[in-house]
Amino acid sequence: MLTEQEIIEGCKKGKPACQEALYRLYGKRMKGICLRYSKTDFEADDIFQDAFVSVFKNIHTYRDGAFGSWIRRIFVNAAINNYRRNVKHYNHQDSHELEVSDETQTNGLDELSAQELMALINELPEGYKVVFNLNVVEGYSHAEIADMLGIAEATSRSQLARAKTMLKKKLEKINSCKYAS
């Protein structure tokens, strides 16, 4: 069994067995990132393919540090690039500032599986979903998101607030259905 460092060194030398080992080691986690940023499985597959090609092309630039963070960044960037290429096809709502409370916690949140929560997030309008994932899941600031997506910081904040409001309403609806019986 190869260590992560041996796999990386083998990939730098272009060894197919090491590339396959890297794919097996990180594939499922990276596919999750692709699914979070896509509308369809087909789109996620395209992002996944593009990102792994980029990993193998650029692995020689990896130095020391957390390899998981390095590869994750490539996949997030591939997803953002896909979003930019397709943004004209997504329906955007007006993105002016909103005054929204940040009370997004509901009692039913603990009862949702990760898959159910993922499904709710995927129902968000595309811009809201991307900003939500970048901020809440990936931890980027609104300034970083604005720079990555070519939008204003206020738009990033607004879309996050709207995403949280929509998710809160969906969670409240789920809770009211569960306890209505």
Automatic annotation (TrEMBL):
Domain RNA polymerase sigma-70 region: 22-86
Keyword Transcription recorded: yes
UniProt-listed InterPro entries: RNA_pol_sigma-70-like, RNA_pol_sigma-70_dom, RNA_pol_sigma70_r2, RNA_pol_sigma70_r4_t2, RNA_pol_sigma_r2, RNA_pol_sigma_r3/r4-like, WH-like_DNA-bd_sf
Ranges where the RNA polymerase sigma factor 70 region 4 type domain occurs: 115-167
Lineage top rank: taxon: Bacteria
Keyword Hydrolase among UniProt keywords: no
PANTHER family, A to Z: RNA POLYMERASE ECF-TYPE SIGMA FACTO (PTHR43133), RNA POLYMERASE SIGMA-70 FACTOR ECF SUBFAMILY (PTHR43133:SF46)
Family membership noted in the UniProt record: Belongs to the sigma-70 factor family. ECF subfamily.
Protein name as annotated: RNA polymerase sigma factor
Organism in which the protein naturally occurs: Adhaeribacter terreus
